[in-house]
Amino acid sequence: MSLVTVPTNAARPADVVHDTDYTISLAGLPIAKASFHTRLEDRRYTISGTLTSAGLADILSSTSGRTEVSGTIESDKLVATDYSVRYQTGKKKRAIDIAFDKGNVTSATLTPQRKRPPKNWVPVTKDDMRGVVDPLSGLIFPASAKVCPKTLPVFDGESRMDLKLSAKGTKPFKTEGFSGDVIVCGIQFVPKSGYRKGREDVDYLRKLDSMEIWFAKSDTVQVYAPVYVRIPTKYGPVTVWATRFKG
Known about the structure:
By secondary structure, the chain is mainly β. Helices cover 6% and strands 60% of the residues. The chain contains two helices and 16 strands. Strands 1, 2, 3, 4, 5, 6, 7, 9, 10, 11, 12, 14, 15 and 16 form a 14-stranded antiparallel β-sheet that branches. The chain starts with 14 loop residues before the first strand and ends with a strand.
């Protein structure tokens, strides 16, 4: 997910930088940390992020990853051209690379590739990769846009899903670089393709009706970006909390 901000006014500075840090917890125990750095030069943007496991999760199975997306700012929106992810859990490594052209996927590479999809695999079709957003810049909204309700057609390099956002009011939120009301959206996860039909964790997420994501507005760059996410699990809630939201 992208947790950064981008200016949407016509008179943009030549170079803008924004940093956001997050702590990720399971049932109140820290399991990972993430940081995102955004740089804008003229009408192009680059978002780079890192994630590292922490606490008990790091002891059980060390995980690290980095991601980057770049593209152009058109009509006050982020339009990705290239998206990549590199991550490692224990000794297992994976790389994802996607190229976009105006929201349509022109190429998607997963390394290593799946040796043979299972019989219950729902394949991704060409139509599934048209008019989609990447998981990072897809969660950034201009200040003038309606944040929720909204449906986000997300493609992450292997799976295609819809994230349906529903309005749930506002709440106060405070962290380094921000203090004020945030927009609260409910999330409904709708898998479309690129997954095993009947998989327990996918079915669990599909049935959840209590997931939330909060968006804070940056007055400096005039966009909304996520500062809090809550996903209930059988082992307790997973929460993502912005510890810094600052340009």
